[in-house]
Write a structure and sequence with these properties.
Elements lengths: L1 E4 L5 H5 L9 H11 L1 H5 L10 E7 L2 E8 L16
Antiparallel strand pairs: 1-2, 2-3
């Protein structure tokens, strides 16, 4: 398995990523979010958030994806009122 940052060339693979479950409203929403991750990563209006999309690749096929962006707050450690 190779972990790497997603590129524009991954957009098609993310749009058709197999979520491995029966269709549901929740998975439809997840599928929509995953399909837009390359655009989200390169959104020029939010470059300060340092958005990253990482894909896992096996034998040349994208099999998993994760994404994150920079969150800044004044208190080190846990976010207030969350379990994070």
């Amino acid at each position: 398995m190779i972990l790497r940052y997603a590129t524009a060339a991954d957009a098609g693979a993310l749009e058709s990523l197999d979520l491995g479950e029966q269709p549901s409203v929740w998975l439809d929403e997840v599928s929509e979010i995953v399909a837009g991750l390359v655009r989200w990563q390169h959104d020029e209006d939010h470059t300060e958030l340092d958005r990253r999309v990482v894909v896992a690749e096996v034998d040349g096929a994208v099999v998993a994806v994760t994404a994150h962006e920079r969150l800044d707050h004044d208190t080190p450690g846990h976010f207030p009122n969350t379990a994070m």
